[in-house]
């Protein structure tokens, strides 16, 4: 009995050590970026690199970054476009999921296959047609251009259809017998029970589009319409190598995502495991 207990403790201890090692590997770049943003360049470029500043902390990198780019406007562009995309994808995915999984409209399998097929097309393959469409509509350098191609998502539809296929149809049938319309069923029954999947989709969509770079780079032509991800690239200069300034910009861009992940870990796990726990 004692040997079994020792063996179990040893396995758990080994597992904890492996997890701690992986956590350090993942967390170290984030830590070094934060520290680099408040280090002097002499500490950053020293050999071997220092993980703690020898010459003290400095806020000059962050202050300089704030003055070089219209940080407030670019944060607003990033938050606004990302929130609109996230809300739209949740709405369209939920509606499509209800139609394909609950209502089972005619040709539901074909429609689902078509939506699934869009996931197999690389984003780079359609970025030029999207850009030409935006340009022909005269929407370049506008907020609409930032969000229009991403208002619906094949992945979001796939996720909601998969989730709603396991939905208890007894609740839907009972609501229909009571005379509830599809909109009433969707709002009062399906939506409350779909919150885990919707929360996971919202977090995934927010993180994905907050970190978007290529599309905003193409359609946002002025600093006032650019997102924070584009703005931090303006902190890099081929004539003046300043790694501390670049890290300060990266930290300002990554702070919202770190906060969201830290606050929403339970929702992420709950959404990813909701289907398997039914």
TrEMBL record:
Q: Would I find Transport among this entry's keywords? A: yes
Domain of life per record = Bacteria
Quick one: a GO biological-process term for this protein? transmembrane transport
> Has the keyword Hydrolase been applied to this entry?
no
Organism, as annotated: Bifidobacterium aquikefiricola
Q: What is this protein called?
A: Carbohydrate ABC transporter permease
The protein's UniProt keywords, in alphabetical order, are:
Cell membrane, Membrane, Transmembrane, Transmembrane helix, Transport
SUPFAM superfamilies in the cross-refs: MetI-like
Q: Which family does it belong to?
A: Belongs to the binding-protein-dependent transport system permease family.
Main localization of the protein described in the UniProt heading:
membrane
GO CC terms of this entry: plasma membrane
Q: Please list the residue ranges annotated as the ABC transmembrane type-1 domain.
A: 79-264
**Which lineage do the record's taxonomy fields give for this organism?**
Bacteria, Bacillati, Actinomycetota, Actinomycetes, Bifidobacteriales
Lipid bilayer topology: Multi-pass membrane protein
Give TM segment ranges: 12-32, 79-103, 110-131, 143-164, 185-207, 245-264
Query: Which cell locations does it reside in?
Result: Cell membrane
